[in-house]
């Protein structure tokens, strides 16, 4: 495959002057084609934009359909693939599979700017806390740079996928007078699958495993039968689209509002990658979910075989001893404090951190109030899911109470406040 450096001079298109006649032309074009005639749409697009048309493909679950049409029109049309560095290995294999199967000769791989990665995502975990920014540096920036010179580009979007795409036409004129072409606009889910079968197209290797819409590995999950295929993308996050500009059609997710950032960690409120366990969740396939201890114990083998990051939810009454040897499996342990007066969570946290040496994130959930946080911190809890507004304000202002003396020591260094005054210590 070519590299991004090879693309700058390839397209002929340079300037895009607004032209009202083009608007009329677009309306006429949309009236000319049958709903299902994707190949004819592509041929027409190539004719009106000679050497000025690019294809963008995610090489995901449905990509073979559009690329099969491209191959019927011109195997040398430039096909851009965003290699975010976060794809499933199966997707990278699938790029080669489709290239060979369809005879495509001009697949161009776009990669993020290494300087952006070094600056904004040095640990490769930006997707966890700030997926919009992660998509921006890994997708939007490289694609914008590559598409700048083209007069038009082809997407695989379809009307059925989202409410916002429900009126998607074959041809769209963008605000900067470029043309977006959507040959599959009218295809339904059933028609896409029928097309794949009819033409014997290779499936993405993960499709049969329940991945119906496939993006980057950390942000893609299996979907259940009957579930919206895109429900598996950024599951549990306030995010529906990756943000690349050809999807700016009223559908892009807005950045999360400050009040939606509920996890206080490392001195700031951040987006929480974890979601709350809900009745009906499958312990074998959930991800970024705190699985209750009782559910874990009843489904231990399934959880241990679950390939995704998961957490453990410890509530009052749970025996931490029962999960001791499996603690290392969990990326996060959430200690549930159901009420201000229930102190059992402090003991659980201390056992997990001090006795069992758990090194992952320990967070407090439930009734997390400002006065408790210093005490929680002494027990090894360093992350807090905060819903109480005054507590939020206190954390933002750095105005928490401190613990000056104590009865019960924690860790190995504290000495209790007791009957022997000479043993009293301040923290
Ligand atoms: S889909 Fe996820 S991993 Fe991929 S660029 Fe977006 S946030 Fe990052």
Q: How are the SSEs ordered, and which strands pair?
A:
Elements (H helix, E strand, L loop, with lengths): L19 H13 L5 H11 L4 E5 L5 H11 L5 E4 L6 H14 L4 E4 L3 H7 L5 H4 L1 H17 L4 E3 L16 E3 L5 E3 L7 H10 L64 E3 L2 E3 L19 E3 H6 L1 H6 L5 E4 L17 E6 L6 H12 L5 E6 L6 H6 L4 E3 L3 H9 L30
Parallel strand pairs: 1-2, 1-4, 2-3, 4-6, 9-10, 10-11, 11-12, 12-13
Antiparallel strand pairs: 5-6, 7-8, 7-13
Iron/sulfur cluster binds next to α7.
Question: What's this, in brief?
Answer:
The protein is α/β, with parallel strands linked by helices. The chain has helices at 20-32, 38-48, 63-73, 89-102, 114-120, 126-129, 131-147, 189-198, 293-298, 300-305, 344-355, 373-378, 389-397; strands at residues 53-57, 79-82, 107-110, 152-154, 171-173, 179-181, 263-265, 268-270, 290-292, 311-314, 332-337, 361-366, 383-385.
List keywords for this structure.
six-stranded mixed beta sheet, disordered N terminus, binds iron/sulfur cluster, Rossmann fold, TIM Barrel, seven-stranded mixed beta sheet, 427 residues, alpha/beta, 13 strands, single chain, elongated
